[in-house]
Structures are given as C-alpha cells and as structure tokens.
Amino acid sequence: MNISIPSILLGLGVKCLLNWALVFIQRNHICKSFLGVFSVSLAIIDTALTLCAAVVHLPDDGYIFFLGLKLTRLHVCLLVQILGQVYSNLQWPVVILAGLDHFCTLTRRLHITRARWLVWLFVSSFLWYLAVLYVFLLSDFNPILEDVTYNQIQQCWVFHSPQIMQVVIFLLLSLGYAALHAGYSNRLMKDQNTDKSTTLSGRDIVKQITHIFLSTWALFLFFLAMLLLLPVGIPAYLGLNVAWLSFLNSILIAVLLCAVCPASQLMQGLAAVPPDSFCEWRFKFSLAAEDRT
Asked: For the whole model, what pTM was predicted?
C-alpha cells in the first residue's frame, strides 16, 4: 500500500511518543524481564528511524550529504521498508523468548541477579542482529520504489504485517486451551491431596485470570480487531511497538498462569508472577478453600 511520506513521519512520531511514555510508566521494573529490555531497544531504534527519516525528508531539495553519501527521499522509503521487514520477522522470536523468560520466572528456574538485565541486553542485541541478517541474506525481500526522481517522490510503498494476526490468534487459542485445561484437569486427577474445594478453587483461579486480563485489555483487543479487519492491514513499521509488547507481556502471563502454575501456589502466594504494569495479578479465594489448602 502507498502512504505519503508526511503520514509515515507522523505515524513514526506518534509511535515514538507512545513508546517512551510506556517505557516511563514501566520504569520501575523495565529491566527485570526480556520484554522490558527489548522495549527500550525498540524505543531507541524507532527514535533513530524517525529522526533519520525526518532529517532527510524535511530539506526542500529532498536530500542531504552524510559521511560523503547523498541520502534522498528514496532512501527514506527504503529504510522504512527494510525496518518494517525486520519488525515483522521479530514477532515470533520475541513471543518465544518472552514466553521462556516468563516460564522460568514462574517456575523459579531462573535466579534473579543484578546482572540479569545485561543478559537480556545481549539477547536483544543479538536478536536484532539476526533479524537484520535474515532480511538481507535469507529472505525474499525485494524493495519496491517508484520510478521517479528523488525530489518528486511523495509516497512510499509500505508492506503490512500479517504476523500480528497470527500471534494474536495463537495466543488467544493458547489462553483458551490453558484455561480449559486448568479448569478441568483436577476432575481427571484424583488422589489423596485432591478434593472438591481444590477443584473449585482451580476453576475460580481461571475465571479470575481471564477477568483480570480482559478487564485491562478488552478495549485494546477490540481496537486491534478493527485494525486487522481493515483491508489495508497494519503497516509493518508500526506493527512492533511498546504497547503491543505490553499486551504480549500480559497475555503470556495469563497463559502461563493457567498452564504451568498450580492453584496451590497461587493460593499460598508462592508464585513468582513476572512484572506487569497493567494487569494486577492478585487473586481472591474463599476461606474454605484456603483452610483445606
């Protein structure tokens, strides 16, 4: 789809402001998880992209010289297309790594250290490096540029990001399956430590997890569904942003709480829930269930 360069710059500018606003909101624990560190790296790269595109586009003659290179508005379109492809290819790796990070946190298999953020910084940098290499060396990406001179170009061809739809459907299906599994698994496992109260508490936990998640993100899901139903889709250069990563953080926590965290740990407050600035993962139980636990 063709989008005017001023519209691209406006979208990038709004995205940068939103990114840094959300990073500031989560500043107290932004470096305690992979998604937090990756969010900071994304905000920095988005800011650099926006500044570079604005500096090249704003001069009346449509070009600047940088380190002996003549950068024109054609390079703006090329840069937006390349980073759009990088962002699209990062969607699934980010989901997988964030899921592994949250799994290790919930199951206490990863000890928290002061240098943990350095590990996630290295992983994030290496992930960006691999994504760029993939786009240039392994993918079938071919830039699309108008056959006009650099001072006449007014629009850029922009790719959309189908990976967002894939990720949303997969995670929502996973949440539904995990909720069903957690809610009814106690019926199939009867032993001396299992009774009716723990079964009911398991169902209650699933209901509370679903309620906490939807009460925070229902409007975002509706807005996302409207965007995805539009024929133009979501531009790839806007698809990866800190708001989207915050949503991924919450839905991954919800899926893993249902899938791998026993009800007894949640009831006794023993579960190490990953940091989340938007969903407050606090659960309420009946006195009878607590006494039997």
From this structure: 0.86
